[in-house]
Amino acid sequence: HGQGSETAVGTSYASIVEAAQIRELLQTDQLLKATLERVKVVTLYKPQLQLLQKTCADIVERRPNVEFVTVDACQGTEAPHIVLSTVRSQRGSIGFASNPRRLNVAISRAIKSLTLVGSAHALGGDRNWAKVHAGF
């Protein structure tokens, strides 16, 4: 997504752009549309979790296999399909998203597929995320 799409919510962040992209992905992506397997949408920020739950409430009603969680809440769990919302869009200021432990938890929960929704511009400015991005 584009630079500047994050919004500060207190000391945390949310992205309406990412929430809309994830909604679209859950509605139209052939893999997710066709599967009855669990899909976990993981985000690094609680305000983003709340925004996703609100934005996608009707999808969850139709698809109870879709779950929304923070990265901290998903530690120790897995799902066949993970959609990761990274939120941050300002290069050089991705905050605790740059924490290697959180990054490891965020990208290691998927059994079959990991879909990353975020700003390559912002994440590419962090050496750990740049390594992840280079692997996609």
How many independent structural domains?
Answer: 1
CATH class: Alpha Beta
CATH third-tier fold name:
Rossmann fold
For CATH, the homologous superfamily is named as P-loop containing nucleotide triphosphate hydrolases
Number of strands: 6
How much of the polypeptide forms β-strand, as a percent range?
15-25%
**Structural class by sheet pairing and helices:** alpha/beta
Overall pLDDT confidence? 83
Main sheet: strands, sense, barrel: 4 strands, parallel
Low-confidence stretches: none
* Cα shape: globular
Summarize the helix and strand pattern as letters: EEHHEHHEEHEHH
SSE diagram, text form:
Elements: E1 7-9, E2 12-14, H1 16-28, H2 30-34, E3 39-43, H3 46-55, H4 57-62, E4 66-70, E5 79-85, H5 100-107, E6 110-117, H6 120-123, H7 127-134
Parallel strand pairs: 3-4, 3-5, 5-6
Antiparallel strand pairs: 1-2
Question: How would you describe what is shown here?
Answer:
- There is one protein chain.
- This protein has 136 residues and is of the alpha/beta class.
- It has a single domain (7-134), classed as Rossmann fold.
- The chain contains 7 helices and 6 strands.
- The strands form 2 sheets. A 4-stranded parallel β-sheet has the order 4-3-5-6. Strands 1-2 form a two-stranded antiparallel sheet.
- Helix 1 packs across helix 3 (46-55).
- The model has no long low-confidence stretch (mean pLDDT 83).
- Residues 9-120 form the DNA2/NAM7 helicase-like C-terminal domain.
